[in-house]
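Suppose a colleague, Dr. K., hands you the sequence of a protein chain of 67 amino acids and asks what its three-dimensional shape might be. Before reaching for any lab equipment, you can write down a predicted structure in token form. Begin with the sequence itself:
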Amino acid sequence: ALAKGCIVLHHKGYKYTNDNIEQLLQTRYLSAMVRKSGKRTKGPKPFTAEDKEKFRVLFKSMIALQK
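The predicted structure, expressed as tokens, is then:
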């Protein structure tokens, strides 16, 4: 999707970019390997009002750019 010029937003209020996608995918892969090895991991932090506000602001700014 990024290669096709799509805008991809995370629900925690940040944008996936060509600059950060490799790191995010690497983190995802390493976390999967830890889980697969049987080690216990923590779940995601709760979705907060601050996260909701960050997403709202980012989403509105992305919509404004498309107009």
